[in-house]
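hey all, quick one before standup. I had two proteins in the batch that finished overnight and I want to keep them in one place so we stop losing track of which output belongs to which input. First protein below, input sequence then structure tokens straight from the run.
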Amino acid sequence: MKQFLKRAFFSLLGKEPEAVIAIFGPGPHGDKLRELVPDRRVVYIPVEEGDSTGEIWLRARRALAPYRVGLAAAPVSHRGVLTAACTVCAGKVLAFHGNLDRHHLHWSTPLASALFVAGVPLDRIWLRPSWWPGRKREVSDLPRVWRKIEGRPARDGALKVAVLSPYCPYPLSHGGAVRIYNLLRNASRYCDVTIFAFEDGQSESDFAQLTEFCTTLYIAKKPRYREPRWSTLLPPEACEYYTPELHEQLRRELNGQILQVEYTMLGRYGGDVLVEHDVTWDLFEQLHAQERSLRSWWDLYRWRRYEKQVLKRFPRVVAMSDKDAGLLNHPGAAVIPNGVDLERFLPAPEEGPARRLLFIGSFRHFPNVAAYRFFREQVWPILSKELGDLEVDVVAGPDPHLYWSQPAGDPRIRLHGFISDVRPFYKDTHLVLIPTVVSAGTNLKALEAMATQRAIVSTPSGVAGLGLEHGKSVWIADTAREFAEGIQYLLEDKERRTALAQAAYELAIERYGWPALAAKQVEVWRKQ
């Protein structure tokens, strides 16, 4: 009887009783919706390049007139298609991002729907500030206790130093971990080192790599910070890694040790030495100069305000370059650049025809995502037309899909996650690419390329502070066109490529070994 009444009702409306799914335009979003509701009839709404919103709307109205729509799939990236879908199939649109994240756009969830369309990641659209009225779907889970792991025995008379880091510096999954690990390992010859760090999936064997040279390792669980990034006066990173309980226990455990704080985000803990891995407000100033948006202004304002306040709390500051030290304008500033393990990264002859490129940079650090976007969206279209047989390896660190949705359809670009040993990638490549558009400090990937005798094509910021010279030890390009032309020129001229690599290698040998840099670090501690 129910089915009879249903058919009778919809026949009066001139529609079929069974709901269909509508798919607007070609793309993987349609295939995904078919997987979700495989038993439903599909009505396809074709979309041609150059169609206006009005044309798509009229085509959809005609195609869907005889039917009752259950769900409609539409891509967020094509705003004309999405607008037409929302007006024709109001309340029924399942919107898809390029990585196939999806959200049901509905009047009952206006804020979440608007945030999803604006590009906010799916796992963050339900976040509401702690001061937001009503019950929250998501709440932060921040660590409260340091777990103690004993290391090697302390030595009488040795300088006692504690280092606070936002991550465990082993495994060597990104540049910051490489720096902290190598400096502390070499400095431990002269000092007793204690490490306070936040874990991120490390095993007990990873911790054992650190307790070989540190006297004590304190580990806190990784924070699960669930506040919208715009909602706090302090930068979100400064809130994510701080709790009063951790601060109080850290102070109790220090017992008179010198405290060095790695990264400005941990500056709320205070201490004796602050290591500015980059001048963060300078990065956000570069971003704001490009975007000129309310979001970029708010990030810049918060970081500049916070960073300048934090600097006043530390008598000594370590910068990565003379440029950064000048920006900080701190009376106790010292420069200790990044280095490279010259015993681990060794020169190797090139093999095979010159056609392999390498990009290394953890996507967890947003300047690396911006650099890769510049290469992928601006440089690669130029380059791929000129050199069709190129291959590109991108080593993007842990969980790259959380920060970048790789466009499909070009098998020449291979996106890799965390790689424990990147040396084989340097050996197999012919050019190392550093296409940074915003950057501060000095890039470890440049130093590794120098040590392995691989020529570098970089933007000016990618090799800033390293002493490399365009045309002598590196190839520097400002624009996408110049970057692509530099790659093509060096791939076709092995003699010039080899000369650049050799000059850069000699500079690495002269200036950037970790033992010498660790001695500078110890000298900073002894001045406390």
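OK second protein, same deal, sequence then tokens:
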Amino acid sequence: MNTEGPDGDRTLRAADFLRAHRQEILADWEQAMHALHADHSDRHSWLMDHMPELLIALAETIEHGPEGMGTALWDEHALERLDQGFDLGEVASEYALLRKCVLRRLESEPRTLAPGELERLEEALDRVVTRTMTCFSQARQRILQALDRMSQATLDGPSVDTLLSRLLSVLMESALAVDAAAMLMLEDERLVVRAAVGLGADKALGSSLGWDEGFMGQVATHRKPLALRSASTDPRVVLRALKAPGLRALYGVPLMEEDRLLGVAYMASRTAFLFAEPDTLLFRTIAQRATAYLVQARLQARERAARVEAQRSLAQLDALLAAMPLGVAFMDLDLRVLRSNQAMADITGVPVEAQLGRTLHEFALKETLQVLEPLVRHVMETGEPVRAHEFTSSVGATRKPRVYQVSYHPVKTPTGELLGLGCTLVDITEHKQTEAKLQRAVDFREQLLAVLGHDLRNPLNAIGASAFQLARAQEWGPPERRAVDRIRKATARMGRMINDILDFARSRLGGGIPVSRQRMNLAEVCQAALEELQVSHPERQLVFEAHGDTWGEWDPDRVTQVLGNLVANAIQHGQEGVPVRTTVRGEPAEVVLEVHNLGEPIPPELMARIFDPFKATSAPKDPAKKTRSLGLGLYIVSQIAGVHGGRVEVRSTAREGTTFTVHWPRTRASR
């Protein structure tokens, strides 16, 4: 309502102002609260949800004075804040901020409050603050007294069941409305009553129900406090002890360890239909304290079990170390040996007893320390392991130079704390000697292949030149010309095989396949190579297609070698009378070469190793057909493509035939 002031101006009543500007004040207060508590805005959700009701109640208090104030909303606010862990100063600051928001909104209002209205507003706010602070302090004092008595109940270290009964007795003595209380623990998917006091305690102890059964099951399932108004008649109550005549209020809370359910606690009353908020807050506090004790007891039990398990593990570790054929030792941060095995003693020539408690510097040879000390320092400084480091030393009883392989790894706790180092030591002298023999044999084989491939080219070139001259003679008849063609084909095939052998030797001897890149047109080089292949295979149709931009930087001789190997492979294994198709297609970053033929598909067991050298499959089911043997050709193709930064792919089905696809990047990949 507005009133006329002495000068004819219209003025406001404080209660009307609060009702009219409730939304604006709420928005101002919410914004201020978020700014003040940006990291804990979720703690103020209750007050934000109930602020409209609080403002209406404040308006009622201004209009009707103390008798219109009521208590429920202010007390609920105080108890909610206490339950959330607020202190008294934080609660007072909320109302101080509300007062500031109301006064600031009044300052922006063109109309003024009627005389005395500002004073009534201030008095109403003071009453609300006083009421909230009083309720908050009384409830906290009550809880502190109960917690003190609960602490005394734990001094003699009682068993879990005894302690739970004592905590429930503290509840009975602190809340007069409570006539029965119990705690049910989750055991094997059932809630079992482990402690009970008050009415029906004898019947309740030891009884159980399904963890999702009845009212207690609802508390466990929803994992939040729930209340009932009539326990003795409500069908959801299935625990027999709660069916005692006259029980009304029933309140249950879950016992939680973070997200894990430990059990359920309840309290019941004959006199009340619903428990007052101070009683439920006290019960939740006692339940939390009981949960904390249960967790602590469980942790202590786990600690005892962990010690037993640690002793068992150490015994197993000692047995394992004794049986291991390689030297193993564990050292602390000072590099003192904590554990060592007999194999380490045999390798180093130092008995296990002489190693324990001593550092590496105390029993290792100087020449060995020069090798091992940098490795140990690296592990200690970086926390990274050193694996399979080989060195030569004269450790051991014989004092003869031998080759050893040592590894160091950090030993850490689950949290990452460094506890020390683990060491493994292996004598690999015989292994290295055998490896050297094998390497010499491999080197001889590869060098022999290279020499044979090189020396065979001279007589082969002579055969090829002679066959070319014979092919030009005019006096030969058809049989003689066919014989000359066979010589030329065999010579060309043998030439490709020798080239493959030479390239294979180069790749295996470490030099790699050499390439000489130059600017070229892949389509033109492939077309010229196919024309030569067509002369050597006049009985087969070789089809060529080119699309798009096919320029790039490649080795033309190697491109010709790749195409020759792929086309020769397609002719050998393709269906006779069906063309072998070669396609060159320009893509944005590469040029794609495809060679396709129809015929028997490549067997699945061969696909996984299609580009391996010296492979061959078993004979086909039809003896009349040739045995598929791809030799070195496809291996060389993959190596040449890899040197150019590309790759080779193959698809082979009975319906679509076999297609080899080579991807040629246009330019050299940057490194």
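Flagging for whoever picks this up: Confidence is low (pLDDT under 50) at residues 1-8, 617-630. The first strand starts at residue 2 and ends at 4.
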